[in-house]
Design goal:
mainly alpha; Alpha-Beta Plaits; 2 domains; 3-stranded antiparallel beta sheet; 57% helix; globular
């Protein structure tokens, strides 16, 4: 049990607490006293009991840029879905699949995970592996015309904003 009166101890991950609170109320589609009380319990207890699994607190330097990043990723997912649909409905001989090694400048494990997730969530590409030293991401792409251009695009659209969002 936590005996400290320090607010950070009761809410070790305030962003997670806020997210849990909002998501619970949205899932319940209710703001009844019972739903609010249970949402508060979740918002406090889940971060407290999962605290041991968080190696260090997440430090977001530019939260508004995180929202912009999320919207960009959603847009890219929609556009990539259309592109992949066009590719697979056409002649498969036109496909130029390739594995590409992309050097990573990110050092924060969470930011690297977000980068790999962004690559994998965008149809047509998947993060296949990461090097042991966490400096190279192996990416498989369904259709590659220019591997250097693809690496530059991923760095510009995903890695650079992650460097700005998190203290990497």
């Amino acid at each position: 049990m936590i005996h400290s009166r320090h607010p950070r101890r009761w809410l070790p991950h305030p962003l997670l607490s806020l997210t849990l609170f909002i998501v619970w109320l949205l899932l319940m589609n209710s703001i009844s006293p019972g739903s609010i009380l249970f949402a508060l319990l979740l918002a406090v207890l889940v971060p407290l009991f999962s605290q041991a699994f968080w190696p260090e607190p997440l430090r977001i330097r530019r939260p508004l840029l995180l929202i912009r990043y999320g919207l960009r990723l959603l847009w890219d997912i929609v556009i990539a879905n259309l592109h992949v649909a066009r590719l697979i409905l056409g002649p498969t001989a036109r496909l130029r699949p390739a594995f590409i090694r992309m050097p990573i400048e990110l050092r924060d494990e969470f930011a690297i995970t977000l980068l790999a997730s962004a690559v994998s969530l965008t149809p047509g590409t998947v993060a296949a592996d990461i090097s042991v030293d966490r400096r190279t991401l192996l990416i498989h792409a369904l259709d590659v015309d220019d591997s250097d251009a693809l690496v530059a695009q991923i760095k510009q659209r995903y890695e650079t904003p992650l460097q700005e969002i998190f203290t990497c």
